[in-house]
Amino acid sequence: MTTVPTLLVLLGAATADELVRLQSLVQARESTTLCFLQRGEPSLVKELNRLAGDGEPEVKVVPVHAGRSATGRSWAFRVAGYWLRTWGAEMDLRMARSELKAPFQDLDDFLAAAAWQRVCGRDGGLTSPSWDEVPGYRHQVLVCQGPRCLARGAGEVTTALQRLLAERGLGDDEVLLTATGCQFPCNQAPLVTVQPDDIWYGNLDDEGVAALVAEHLCRAEPPAQGRSVQYRLRRSRGTGEPTKSSPPAGGAVRRPPS
């Protein structure tokens, strides 16, 4: 019996441990691939293109929920529908109605119990009149998702930021949390920058994230000139090279040793 190709599409920013677990599920099952709705490669669209190019008549998509504010399943369904309309494929494309969630149960059990919704390409679009304007946020927090930052705890930093911002009632209209590619300087991983203040925070753990939110994002003005903020990176005069204050040890947001 031929195994139907299955795509696990990650909806949010997973931690390093979650990614390892998902990769182990994929490796243990034939014709199964991990892809990303955002912030990673291969993307859902790229994998659908590959399978269509291989002539696959049927594909199943499993939304995978990771991270505190993962994009909902509906967006994966919209993207799959948009791809189907654009590609013009006659593929039988189906998406699980429920999400696979951490700690990620046995995949075969999930697939056997799942109810499936056919993607027909007529459900929802990718545009809306309400998405024309640039949001009026006060700060944009750029969380580096480069390879070194991810290896050293960027996923955990993202989760901690999401939790603390939610607890403080800071939504996208005040603080826009954005994942990026490599920002440099990699030796300071995990790294976060706050714009438009142009302040960089490195070697972040839970204390550093808490200080960033309380002492910077919750204030109407950025930290005063010359004030020593934990984890803040400063540019040495004349060299452009970053320097930093030493972070305290410990904390729940941890990373492997260098």
Automatic annotation (TrEMBL):
This is (2Fe-2S) ferredoxin. It comes from Tessaracoccus bendigoensis DSM 12906. Gene3D superfamilies: Glutaredoxin (3.40.30.10). It comes from the Bacteria. Residues 225-258 are annotated as: Disordered. Pfam families: 2Fe-2S_thioredx (PF01257).
